[in-house]
């Protein structure tokens, strides 16, 4: 690997990782290999000299604190030097507990929300988008379930208009949630996050089928009536 020159590395990247992006980088003369970074500067070699450029992109926010931020580097080095386990799944993970407590504190003091939140930590933007969508869909479904339960109670009252209530419940059960996405946006490569961007009206059929091969129908449901319907149509 190390013996490959930047051009050969570019070809390798194009061949096995991101063919179209690699072609675009070449056209834009951005097909360089950065070898060092500090703060808002990144360095690459043009074969003769080392060149330093200002990073105006900042990893879309992921390097908001600057490349190799000294405090973060120190914390990482400290973790490695202490020989801490990196994957001890069935255990109390103190770092996660501290981050969760801090986030809850921020939500209380700046978000004005005093509820104690359970924090699910994830590794990527796509997972964050998935979690947000899942949360929104669960909330949507929970509200529908509560409404159906109220209607079912109403229906059991003497003198209620059973047929009208039934037809309303049927309509509620047939409803599908709609998620609005910005045209041409990118939200990650997992199935649901890519589906958001691909289902926007501007997406080509090819892009849609690339992003979500096969058909997906997600109708999570919790009321007895919903479950019975789902089971009978399965
Ligand atoms: C707006 C937006 N959402 C989601 C993602 C996906 O993030 P990741 O590549 O970390 O899964 C990106 C990545 O560029 C993004 O820009």
Descriptive overview:
The protein is mainly alpha-helical and 234 residues long. Among the domains are: 88-121, no CATH class; 127-233, no CATH class. Helices cover 50% and strands 6% of the residues. The chain contains nine helices and three strands. It has a three-stranded antiparallel beta sheet with strand order 1-2-3, with no helix packed on it. Helix 5 runs antiparallel to helix 6. The chain is elongated. The structure holds pyridoxal-5'-phosphate. Pyridoxal-5'-phosphate binds at residues 60, 124-126, 129, 186-188.
Question: Nutshell version of this structure?
Answer:
The protein has 234 residues and is mainly alpha-helical. Among the domains are: 88-121, no CATH class; 127-233, no CATH class.
Keywords:
234 residues; mainly alpha; 3-stranded antiparallel β-sheet; 6% strand; elongated
């Amino acid at each position: 690997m190390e013996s490959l020159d930047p051009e050969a590395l570019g070809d390798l990247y194009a061949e096995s990782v991101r063919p179209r992006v690699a072609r675009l980088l070449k056209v834009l003369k951005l097909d360089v290999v950065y070898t060092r970074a500090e703060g808002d500067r990144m360095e690459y070699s043009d074969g003769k000299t080392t060149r330093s450029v200002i990073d105006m992109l900042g990893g879309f926010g992921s390097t908001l604190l600057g490349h190799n931020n000294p405090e973060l580097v120190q914390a990482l080095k400290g973790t490695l030097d202490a020989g801490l386990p990196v994957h001890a799944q069935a255990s109390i993970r103190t770092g996660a507990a501290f981050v969760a407590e801090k986030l809850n504190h921020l939500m209380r003091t700046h978000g004005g929300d005093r509820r104690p939140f359970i924090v699910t930590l994830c590794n990527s933007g796509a997972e964050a988008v998935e979690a947000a969508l899942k949360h929104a869909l669960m909330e949507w479904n929970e509200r529908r379930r509560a409404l159906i339960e109220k209607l079912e109670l109403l229906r059991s009252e003497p003198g209620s208009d059973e047929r009208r209530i039934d037809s309303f419940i049927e309509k509620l059960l047939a409803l599908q949630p709609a998620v609005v996405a910005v045209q041409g946006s990118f939200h990650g490569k997992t199935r649901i996050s890519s589906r958001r961007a691909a289902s926007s009206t501007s997406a080509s059929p090819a892009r849609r089928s690339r992003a979500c091969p096969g058909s997906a129908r997600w109708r999570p449901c919790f009321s007895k009536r919903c479950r019975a319907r789902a089971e009978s149509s399965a």
